[in-house]
Amino acid sequence: MGNIRIKWVTGAALATIVAGLLVLGVINYFRGYAHAEVNQAGNLQKNQPENLTVEKEQSTKLVQVDKDTKAEMEWMRKHQMEAKKNEKQKETKTATEDSKPEAKPANENTKPAATPTKENTKPETKPTPTQENTKPTTTPIEEKIEPTDAGKKTVYLTFDDGPQVFSKEIIALLEQYQFKATFFMLEGNIKRYPDAVNLMVDTGNAIGIHGVSHDSKQFYASATSVLAELNQTRQTIKAITGLDIFLMRTPYGSKPGMKDAYKQIVFDEGYQMWDWTIDSKDWFYKDARLVSSVIKQIEEKTKKNEPLVILLHERRETLEQLPSLLDYLSEHNFDCKVIDGTMNPIHF
Fold it and tell me: The domain 106-336 belongs to what CATH superfamily?
């Protein structure tokens, strides 16, 4: 009996020890699991700022791209609105001018000393605004519209914005009537159609500078921008024809873009600036009204013995109407001549 009790006590003790070990193992297991969870949470907290930073940078880039896109769209919208506004202003101005005689240029009596347009050296005498009230040493243009041989009167045809692919057709028409004209050209077109430029010179027509951009904001931005475009076009003409040209016309005419400071610098460089007295409005009239408008202005100015400098553009529509205008000039005994360096420029 005593042996049985001892074995029972011993078994109970062993069972207690085993149970204790099991309980201790379970406790250690849960401690390790909890520690792993804490470490994982810590790692997530460490990585979270980095993820937020990346997401913030991506969001900032998207916002910037969106802002840039909106800015470009806004610029295009304003540019289109400005273009439409300018077009409406031109149409309104045209409608008003059609009901009135063409205004006499404000400073047609301006007589700065002229410089040669086709010499290879820069003229020594340079016109300046301060010479407006001095007596010109060259033949006034007013005298050139007086009746010449066989009672003819002189008119000056000028073509802007060329040359074009059809410039040779304009020249051929002029040759048929034994007329000459003056072509104020853009630098880009000069490079594009160099053969047309040489043809103008070879047939006895005059060539002049009209700038590079033909953009009023860009051209008239400063005195430096004005002079830069004139010089660049002048060098291109010289490279193609060998002629050093100082005859020039600014985009859209000298008023109001050419400030006094701009004019002073241009004159100091020896350039000879020309505007016009008759606007064909061929940018607006694209049919027979173009010819009618020019004829009306010619008749009004002839009565007043005013100079006849006609503004035309190298446009297809102008080319189509040109024979009718040349017919009128020929039938009414006009002689079409070139502008040269012996004449006093017409300014607005």
Answer: Glycoside hydrolase/deacetylase (3.20.20.370)
